[in-house]
Amino acid sequence: MGMVDISGKKPVNRIAVAVGRIYLREGTLEAIRDKGIRKGDPLVVAEIAGMNAAKRTPELLPHCHQIPIDKIDLSFQMDKDHIETTCTVKSVAKTGVEMEALVGVTNALNTIWDMVKYLEKKDGQYPETRIGGIRVIKKTKGGTDG
Predict the structure, then answer these.
(1) Residues recognised as catalytic
(2) Please, what is the average pLDDT of the chain?
């Protein structure tokens, strides 16, 4: 077992895009829009948290190779009952970046939850709050679908 041997592969351009959603109460989404969250702007903090997490993927997932990350971009789209987060990771590497994109989007969503949980709690629970739909929506390798 162990890590896959990629020593014989040549570095190529690689891009992966992952998305996910956090479903929140209407009042919580309004507070985010109105910049009324006690801990600050969750989307700004989630962007930084997602970038940091994507860069640390090999520390979190034992079989992931350390690869040079050329670009990480996180974006957020607010809807009536959720925030959709997209994480795009680019690299010139011997192996793909889809795990980095997934770790980035997941940590961004967890960060949003952490920052708004005091608004979401009901009787100590989170009956409406949930994270879902996390998936890779695009993966390219060398300019073609990989």
Answers:
(1) 114
(2) 95
- Supply the pLDDT for residue 42: 98
pLDDT at 90 over 60: yes
Within 8 A by CB and 6+ apart from 11, the residues are: 92, 93, 94
Type and span of the H or E element at 14: strand 12-23
User: Exposure of 84 by Cβ count < 10 A (0-12 exposed, 13-18 middle, 19+ buried)?
Assistant: middle
Give the pLDDT score at 144: 58
- Assigned token pair, 112: 């949003």
Report yes or no: 83 and 77 within 8 Å, Cβ to Cβ: yes
Q: In this predicted model, what pLDDT tens digit does every residue of 59-70 receive, in sequence order?
A: 999 999 999 999
- The ranges assigned to domains in the chain are 12-145
Candidates 3.50.50.60, 1.10.357.140, 3.30.70.640, 2.130.10.10; CATH matching 12-145: 3.30.70.640
Q: Which residues of 90-123 are buried (b: 16+ CB within 10 A; e: fewer)?
A: bbebebbbbbbbbbbbbbbbbbbbebbeebbeee
